[in-house]
Amino acid sequence: MTLLGKTAFVDLSAGSIRVEATAEKLVRAFLGGRGLNMAYLYRLLPAGADPLGPENVLIFGTGLLTGYPVPNSGRMNISAKSPESGILGDANMGGFFPAAMKKSGFDRIVVTGRAEEPVYLYLSRGYLEIRPAGRYWGLNATAAQAALAEDLGGGVRSAVIGRAGENLVRFACVMNGRKNAAGRGGMGAVMGSKRLKAVVAAGEQEPEIADREALLALRKELNEYLHTSKVIKILGKLGTPMLYENANRLGIVRTKNSRLNQWSAALDGARVEEHVERMVACAGCTVHCRHVNKYGGEGPEFVTVGLLGANLGIDDLVGVIELNNLCNDLGLDTASAGGIIGWAMELAERGLLTAAQTDGPLAWGDVGRVKALLQDIAERRGFGAVLAESSQAPRLGLLPAEATRYLSAVKNLPQSDPIDVRYIKSFALGTAISSRGADHLRSRPTLDILQLPDHVRAAVFGEATDGELTGYATKEIMVEASETIFAVSDSLGICRFVCRLWNSPKLLGYEHFAALARLAVGLDLSPEELRAVGARVIDLERLLNAREGLTRADDTLPPRYFEEPAPLGAAQGHYIEREEFARLLTRYYRRRGWDEEGRLPANRIAELESLVAAGA
Amino acid sequence: MTVSLVLGEPFWRDWGVREAEVEIPPERAAAGLTLRELLALAGAHGEAAESWAGEEGPPSVFVNGRAVPGGRLKDLRLRDGDRVVVQLMLSGG
Fold it and tell me: pTM of the entire structure?
């Protein structure tokens, strides 16, 4: 017997709430988190919906194991149609809110409609209320969370939007704590469009556990196992900024809007350490990879060091940390913020934007100007209003059509991370096929770059692969295997940092996930059945995007990666060869069981639609 | 002959060397050097490299920017002026 939680359906236009038990058939097919969010999105989202209209469906979904005594199970996904990309939007978040939501009695909240006045949702002991949020509207993320805690008691945890979300900035994120963000795709703007300022969870009750004693014993065993990993120990000591130095030395750090691929050592992880007070962790985490910095915030992560540093030609580390803290408070995705501002800087350099259009000079490395721009973006002031539209600005006539070719984006989502993918071809494929747009967290085969021995790669990828980083052969095997297990960990609510195939072959895999699911919620699925869930989630995401008009032509890379060889470092001269890439893409489709155009077979579509309808 | 050795993250922290110019006797260069041997010549804690190589693989080794599969430095014949970089190539963050 599987223990089932509750799913709430909230119509903000009508002010109505309906709560039902999550259907077991849906849980067996999609688990929770990202997977189950996709099922509800597919079922409820009208094709062609306006992402900022009341018809968009906004889903807060905890992972199946979020909030349970399971290693690193403190995560959830927030999903909707993305106002930034126009396709599926899905952002994963850690911190303390996800576990608190589960401990308030809810697996998932599905929000539709638009409130007349600002509201927040209050969750406690299986009950949900829609409450007025006028007092909090206008506050940024830190102040809003503090005010909610003051009014409701210090134990509550909130997922909030800042000014960026209120003003419908297309890359506004949802924040909980000082740094944890559901960052990608503008989920904060969707909240803003619904006049939903926050979801607040009291988090008073532990979830029922199928076999508590055995689960606690397994957690202890797995935590000990994880701490035998050198990678886990290093991430706990240094966090992700240590990635910068090594990537930069190789020449794979996106620099100045990806025109260059190498930048200053002033942003090295060893330098970041000088500005760190201590390391902290998310709920249930055994890694402890988060930095509390000396300037009133947390971070920066490698992504932010790269995109608000190298990508903007900034080598002032304190400046980068301040930009990081500012983005988090305004509720802006640091990845898109760095991508979009870098794009504008190149457009200005190329003469496609004049100083008059940009409200003054827009030069690489100008920290003060970037700070002001972030504020302007969040408030939609002046040129900030143009950048607030992100990749959609050319379509809206706010930037020349030619501008698009200089945007480092896939499927209209600015690239999520600072890695220049021209050198490592498996990374290029992963970026191109990612279901939410240019993204590393969805499908990057991080083990490729570790140069593991052949037998280790064969064990983790399930068959022999080619270890040549710069080659195209067998990279589809690596991408498919990585993408599938990541979909499963996202659906369980387990952090990528303890998931096998992410930075280490040694971490938790399907066999561990199966045991944890059985002991926590009584869901009895074999490792192979869990792998099938991952494939199902990927296929459903493909179907969702196809419904929005995406085709094979969208599984591509920014023109620069095909046309301009990387100019610096070891990666010098490397680029993506179009015909080789096309063949690699076709091999990936075949591996997924799709046709040459990347379409699912009719019987698979029918199977998925039947599963999605379960419990409707 | 002389090669330059760079230890990147996180190895420089525990292995005692960040960057070094390493003198290699010609006969040893001709026979090929393991990473441990190269590290020892550089005054670094060469034994640490072997303790690293377990289930999570050996340290990533690049010679003149080119990856050395499986860190098998001994399969190569280093040449005068080569630049050897040893680092952990994590890319997921």
Answer: 0.97
Has residue B53 got a pLDDT over 90?
Answer: no
Report d(CA A453, CA B71) in Å as an integer: 8
CA distance A284 to A80: 27
Give backbone dihedrals phi and psi of A322, rounded to 5 degrees, phi first: -65, -40
Contact yes or no for B5/B84 (Cβ under 8 A): yes
State the DSSP H helix or E strand holding residue A350, giving kind and residue range, or none if neither: none
* Cβ distance of A242 and B10 shorter than 8 Å: yes
Q: Which fold has domain A6-201?
A: Aldehyde Ferredoxin Oxidoreductase;  A, domain 1 (3.60.9)
* Contact between residue A39 and residue A608 where contact means Cβ atoms under 8 Å apart: no
CA distance A575 to A564: 7
Q: Residue length, chain A?
A: 616
Amino acid letter, A255: T
**Closest by Cβ to A446, choosing from B6, B10, B91:** B91
The pLDDT score that the predictor gives to residue B49 is 77
Residues of chain A with CATH 3.60.9.10: 6-201
In this prediction, residue A1 carries a pLDDT of: 63
User: Distance between CA A363 and CA A354 in Å, rounded?
Assistant: 12
Strand order in the sheet with B2-7: B19-23, B2-7, B83-87, B60-63, B66-67
pLDDT at A616: 67
Query: Could you tell me if B27 lies within 8 Å of chain A, comparing CB atoms?
Result: no
Half-sphere exposure of B30 (CA within 13 A, CB side): 3
Q: Which two tokens stand for residue A125?
A: 């002991």
